[in-house]
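Troubleshooting: if your tokenizer reports a length mismatch, compare your output against this known-good record of 257 residues.
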Amino acid sequence: MSKFPLLILSDGPTAGTGLARITRDLAVRIATCLTDVFDIATLGYGGPITRSLPFTQYQMTMKDWTVYNLPEVWEDFAGTRKGAILTIWDASRMLWFSRPETCADPILRKLLEKAPFETWGNAWFNAPCLYWPAKAGKPATINGSKVASVLLIDETLDAATPYPGSLEVRKLYPHSSLIAEPGGTSHADSLFGNACVDDQIADYLATGKLPTRKKGDGADTTCAPLPIPDPTAAGLSASVAGSSGSARAHLLPTAIH
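Known-good structure output:
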């Protein structure tokens, strides 16, 4: 039986991002546990290709989130076989993918029109809420004043976990502190090599120290987000200009255990 081609379109599996880790873990699991069903490959943004992973990897040619080399990658990977493309990116990046008429590249648009987009996976979970016949329950009353301390971390432009939600949680927990990363687009933004963020996590886990809480409804401190992965980068690690890579991060194993 011919195996079903499945191409995952996301951050490259060796890039230093949360989506890269999800891509890598999913592809490895499919490649090792469902090898008789799927022929698995990734088309990724950021990170080098490596022979240490048990699946084929491609690097994307991209501009403004449009993946222009998708047709040639699909032909090389799947040939004439019918298959599927799974994207782990959120909808804010993928208008060209779900609505081919908005795609300016004629070759890419032809491929997308031939293989129509189905839906975002989480739409199956969220859409029924619009038509659910039962009455809504009473919202829970949250009294966060009894919680001694909470460290919150969020990037301000993440589509999946909107930043206003972090501000609301901070308001509900008056003894919390929020580290914001202005302009960042990920919600997997901790313990990835950003010393500004990671050192404050280490301090909190080791000593309970929080950033000083400020008056008002905004963040208590800010850190620059990690840069967007560079597909031409030779290494796997990411860093922020000016980050010191402080040794305080070495406190983490002690604090966690």
